[in-house]
Amino acid sequence: MIILGIESSCDETAAAIVDQDYCVHSNIISSQVAIHRQYGGVVPEIASRHHLHHIVGVVDQALEKAGYNLEQLDGVAVTKGPGLVGALLVGVQMAKSLAYVHQKPLIGVNHLEGHLVAPFLAEGGQKIPKRHLALLVSGGHTALILVESLGEYRLLGSTRDDAAGEAFDKVAKLLDLGYPGGPIIEKLSTKGDPKAIHFPRALPKKDELDFSFSGLKTAVANHLRKRGKVSGQSLFDLCASFQQAVADVLIKKTLIAAKMRRVDTLVAGGGVLANQKIRQSLQLACEESGLKLFIPPIGLCTDNAAMIAAAGMRRLVQGERSGMDLNAQARLPLANL
Ligand code: KG4
Ligand code: ZN
Predict the structure, then answer these.
(1) Among 310, 303, 317, 312, which Cα is nearest to 337's?
(2) Nearest CA to ligand 1 atom 14
């Protein structure tokens, strides 16, 4: 079985070819980061236009690199939401057109499910137990989810305010570092001391699994108000201390959730898990607690279409199909699955 995946929910135009064994035959990503950087964040209208301009070329490249043509496909999977509605529409329309013209099964995929399925691409789906805990940490979401099986999700906790990735982006903005904040803060952190500044770790009651990162962002703002503009070692220390605070909160809540729900497997995904320090800290914490961790390689943590193809493939195999009335949905909670 060969599936084409298409992703255009935010600022990456992406297409990938994945087979039924979760093998990635091609994974093409056209990033718009350089375009949006000058505005300090993603400009939705510009994102839509860029997707429109690049989508055909990106799909062509994915097919060519994998060595398949459209007739050989067994299905087309596309992100239907959540995301920027104008951006999503470009991918959805492209997928619908290809599915209609070539008479292929079409499946709309929740982007968040894509992130949860990404580790399967690296490990081979059969090795990950059906029931597991999932930690999703992206630009728009921070959530702990109990996965009973594909599509059976129980939201255990989510962010009450900023998502972890959003906190990275907002703190980078406060520091005038540019967009997106995560990779820049990570780079500066490597030269800093994570214990230099003690930022608050918002850990509401022990049995509550929600996250909150806006207090941390405010603490960074207050620090800057007191200290003025920071540079050199002070900047490195601030970045490392902030990054450590995010890591500590994510790990603490994850371990509590695993214990409460008696799970021994953790699947983690989303752009923030491209962060080496957070990956290593999570890895170590899981080892110490006897939790088996599945985490995608860095390139499959951030947005890509291989994860969308994989999630779509699993649903197509179960006989699910989307109709030609498939539409983009800016808001699409996992609970709707
Ligand atoms: O999953 P993703 O690519 O897109 C969404 O679905 O949101 O996540 C993007 C987020 C951004 O907030 C970005 O700053 C963050 O992931 N991010 C990182 C790193 N790379 C991307 N955060 C921390 N460290 C990184 N290396
Ligand atoms: Zn994402």
Answers:
(1) 312
(2) 182
Tens-place pLDDT, residues 312-323? 999 999 999 999
Q: What is the pLDDT of residues 258-267, one digit of tens each?
A: 999 999 999 9
Question: What is the CA(165)–ligand 1 centre distance, in A?
Answer: 5
Task: Give the ligand whose atoms come closest to the C-alpha of residue 273.
Answer: 1
Q: Is the CB of 142 under 6 A from ligand 1?
A: no
User: Over 80: is that where the pLDDT of 4 sits?
Assistant: yes
Q: Which atom of ligand 1 is nearest to the CA of 246?
A: 23
Q: Can you tell me which atom of ligand 1 is nearest the CA of 168?
A: 14
- For every residue of the chain, which 3-state class applies, written as one string? CEEEEEECCCCEEEEEEEECCCCEEEEEEEECHHHHHCCCCCCHHHHHHHHHHHHHHHHHHHHHHHCCCHHHCCEEEEEEECCCHHHHHHHHHHHHHHHHHCCCCEEEEEHHHHHHHHHHHHHCHHHCCCCEEEEEECCCCEEEEEEEECCEEEEEEEECCCCHHHHHHHHHHHCCCCCCHHHHHHHHHCCCCCCCCCCCCCCCCCCCCCECCHHHHHHHHHHHHHHCCCCHHHHHHHHHHHHHHHHHHHHHHHHHHHHHHCCCEEEEECHHHHCHHHHHHHHHHHHHHCCEEECCCHHHCCCCCHHHHHHHHHHHHCCCCCCCCCCCCCCCCHHHC
- Calculate how far, in angstroms, residue 99's C-alpha sits from the geometric centre of ligand 1: 31
Q: Check: pTM over 0.85? Answer yes or no.
A: yes
Q: Is 8 in the pocket of ligand 1 (CB under 6 A)?
A: no
CA of 161 to the centre of ligand 1 (A): 17
Going from the Cα of 188 to the center of ligand 1, the distance in angstroms, rounded, reads 16
